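Review this chain:
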Amino acid sequence: GRLCRRSRTPERFLRAAPRDRADAEAGKAACLSNCAKGSSAALPARAQNVDAQIRSLVRSLGYGAAIHHFKNYVLRGADAHRADAETFFGQAQKTIADLRGAPALTDEERQALDAIAGVVIHYRANIGVAQKMLGDGRRVTEIDAAVKVDDTPAARGLALLRAGRQWTALDTLEAALGYAGAIHHFKNYILRGSDGYRINAA
């Protein structure tokens, strides 16, 4: 809400009858009360905005988005997957930049954002590596080995950002299916055959 200006009582009110002065004071009190309510309501709104941005980050990285298309590009080589991976990683980077401007974040949460950002940069650079190797006719296993990224910093960062916040059942499902979740492990199992990925995907 708009901030109330400091009340200045004109001379005509000072000379007015007691009832008029009482009405003026009541109006001033109501204004101050409304300002206070507006300020307190702004805090949850800012918190909700941070939650929405974290939700957007989880979605842009996860199922049907960045990591899904990146793995499909390595597996299948279709240029549509490359383009979609670029788009969703770009969206993730924009969301990270927006979140960095949120005053409500703790220092630990900002460090988590930095960790996620570093992994996203690595993945985005590796799209070009995969594209070149595909053009050279290299095998899927060779490409996967060349573009393999350590997901641990980003996985921990996302977990930290989500911790202690209220999420809907859909939010929880998207996180479970997405980055460092079911689809991520499933694609890695197909690419690498390690039983650990199969267990984590199940």
Summary: Residues 1-18, 28-43 have pLDDT under 50 and may be disordered. Residues 33 and 188 are 57 Å apart (CA to CA). The two ends are 49 Å apart (CA to CA).
